[in-house]
Specification:
By secondary structure, the chain is α/β, with parallel strands linked by helices. It has one domain: Transcription Regulator spoIIAA, CATH 3.30.750.24. 33% of the residues lie in helices and 24% in strands. The strands form 2 sheets. It has a 5-stranded mixed sheet, sandwiched between helices. A two-stranded antiparallel ribbon has the order 1-2. The protein is globular and about 35 Å long.
């Protein structure tokens, strides 16, 4: 019996890396500029809350897209959020704002989910801006040095401006 070829991301005939299905799906041929900015705004409490997902324009006008309920203990899962982001990436959206101003605290699990989301968007060629007011969350980001990578801004207006500069 012949051994199976190693198909781990390399086209042996063309000697080039092969994009895995997920990478291909997240890199569509659509123009990203036409999709606008997606605003993700979690509002979390000790047990539950929700994540509002909106489109936002340069004048800070918001249009609701979806609301995801968050239930359970303080270690919140973000149900459906990653699938929603993947779907938006497939549809060509490349600009995201994550507004953490209504998140009272974050532990290492939340920090891990934040990094995972940041990586998902970046790996697909997207841009994300983090909005974080001074306080607990910003302190956690600074202590963990995640702020060095994500460069949080203090207001939604600043986030829209940053994405405008990156797109231009």
């Amino acid at each position: 019996m012949l051994p199976l070829p190693d198909c781990s991301g390399y086209d042996q005939l063309r000697h080039k890396p092969v994009l895995h299905t997920r990478e291909r799906d997240l890199n569509p041929q659509k123009k990203p500029e036409s999709q606008g900015i997606l605003l993700i705004r979690p509002t979390l409490k000790i047990a539950g809350g929700f994540i509002a997902v909106c489109r936002i324009d340069q004048e800070l006008n918001e249009t609701a897209v979806r609301q995801l309920d968050v239930a359970g203990a303080p270690d919140h899962e973000w149900p459906g959020l990653f699938k929603l982001i993947e779907k938006q990436l497939v549809q060509g959206r490349r600009q995201f704002i994550l507004d953490l101003q209504k998140v009272p605290w974050m532990n290492s699990r939340g920090l891990g989910r934040l990094i995972e989301m940041w990586k998902l968007i970046g790996d697909a060629g997207g841009q994300a801006v983090l909005v974080c007011a001074p306080g607990r969350i910003l302190t956690i980001l600074e202590i963990s040095q995640v702020s060095l990578i994500m460069n949080p801004v203090l207001t939604l207006n600043e986030a829209v401006q940053v994405l405008g500069k990156k797109a231009g």
